[in-house]
Specification:
Mean pLDDT: 91
Order of helices and strands: HHHHHHHHHHHHHHHHHH
CATH architecture of the largest domain: Orthogonal Bundle
CATH topology of the largest domain: Hypothetical protein af1432
CATH class of the largest domain: Mainly Alpha
Number of strands: 0
Low-confidence stretches: 1-6, 58-62
Distance between the termini: 58 Å
Structural class: mainly alpha
Radius of gyration: 21 Å
Number of domains: 2
Largest sheet: none
Helix content: 55-70%
Oligomer: single chain
CATH superfamily of the largest domain: Hypothetical protein af1432
């Protein structure tokens, strides 16, 4: 069954048979290596906690705004669509997409900045590196090893979904030296599956943050009318304002935005494969250029929409009130727990040699409401 599927994949795809894992395990005929990776992510404690972690709005703000888990599922859906079109390894694509935000703190990027500041004398904090700490050390579900023992290809994709690693010092400070046992080539380009997961993340948060911003009345449809790409889409759907609710019109606009961005990636990626003469998987790893990317027009749109969302949404005074409170909570928790770590955490579960990092792992793993409740108990 797997052999047959393997033949149907593109020659540019990551093969269904993995190069291996750090710890050897028995194979199963029921699932491919990457299906097992995906399932391990979905069943992990860290993934479940994403349900109650902030995307933009603090999780207690409302039931219909996106959280980290809904965002991750939406990234995975877009990534699978792109991967299926190109006949790449869908399970690897989905795994990287589902896992990419596991390391996020409560209260979104505000929480990350606060925790990084708390850890500035102890190696700092980065949610991408924290994702790898969770996968390598912190998830504890097996007798034989710590972590999830994911495939080398999945680890490579999570390490390099934003491109080759030019500086590994931050990773070494937070994860330890040679934690990847010389089995990862940091300087090679990422797989096309990792590149798809990365750009799907951009599509998801651009389009869905727009939807959440419109639904929360932080900005109006008319504010989008002068933005390239959006201009035509908004105009088309504004014609239906008399016949349909604004909520339905917003959903249709978001669908069209995603569709336009996905189509643009397909056309641009096809051109890049020809342009860079990508004939096999080794060509993918050797090329110094991104292969899966937007056209120049869509890159410009991506920059404009990110600036728009930053100005109108992420820095909106109502959003910042909550995110600033999140920073305050993180700082208070870190300083309080540091005074008496044994009162709050089971240090044996963490790294006894580095109490600050253990506290950091504990706080980073909290949901928004757990952090709020603990803060209220100790303030």
């Amino acid at each position: 069954m797997q052999k047959k599927s393997n033949h149907s994949l593109s020659i540019l795809a990551t093969p269904l048979k993995s190069k291996g894992r750090f710890f050897k395990e028995k194979k199963t005929h029921l699932r491919t290596d990457f299906q097992r990776d995906r399932d391990r992510i979905i069943h992990s404690t860290a993934f479940r906690r994403l349900k109650h972690k902030t995307q933009v709005f603090v999780n207690t703000s409302g039931d219909h705004y996106r959280t980290r888990i809904t965002h991750s599922l939406e990234v995975a859906q877009i990534a699978r669509t792109l991967s299926k079109f190109f006949n790449f390894n869908e399970d690897l694509c989905e795994t990287i997409s589902l896992a990419h935000d596991l390391g996020h703190t409560p209260f979104g990027h505000a929480g990350e900045h606060a925790l990084n500041n708390c850890m500035k004398k102890s190696g700092g904090f980065d949610h991408n590196v924290q994702t790898l700490r969770i996968i390598l050390f912190l998830e504890n579900r097996y007798y034989e090893f710590k972590g999830l023992n994911l495939t080398l290809e999945t680890l490579d994709g999570l390490l390099k979904h934003n491109g080759p690693l030019k500086n590994v010092k931050k990773y070494e400070k937070i994860l330890g030296k040679n934690v990847f046992k010389n089995k990862i080539n940091f300087s090679s380009s990422p797989s096309l599956e990792a590149q798809i997961a990365s750009i799907s993340d951009d599509i998801a948060y651009n389009s869905h943050d727009l939807e959440d911003g419109l639904k929360s009345n932080l900005f109006k449809l008319k504010d989008l009318e002068n933005i390239p790409v959006l201009k035509k889409i908004v105009f088309k759907h504004n014609q239906k304002i008399k016949n349909f609710s604004i909520e339905l019109i917003i959903r249709q606009i978001v669908r069209d935005i995603i569709n336009e961005m996905v189509k643009d990636i397909i056309i641009t990626t096809q051109k890049n494969i020809k342009r860079y003469k990508i004939k096999n998987l080794n060509d993918v790893y050797r090329t110094k250029n991104s292969i899966v990317e937007f056209s120049k027009e869509m890159k410009d749109f991506d920059k404009i929409i990110k600036k728009f969302l930053k100005r109108k949404m992420y820095y909106h005074k109502d959003v910042r009130i909550n995110t600033n409170r999140g920073k305050k909570i993180i700082n208070k928790l870190f300083n309080s727990i540091k005074k008496n770590p044994y009162r709050y955490i089971n240090v044996s579960k963490y790294d006894k040699t580095n109490i600050d990092r253990s506290i950091c792992d504990f706080i980073a793993g909290m949901t928004d409401r757990y952090a709020i409740n603990l803060y209220n108990n100790i303030k």
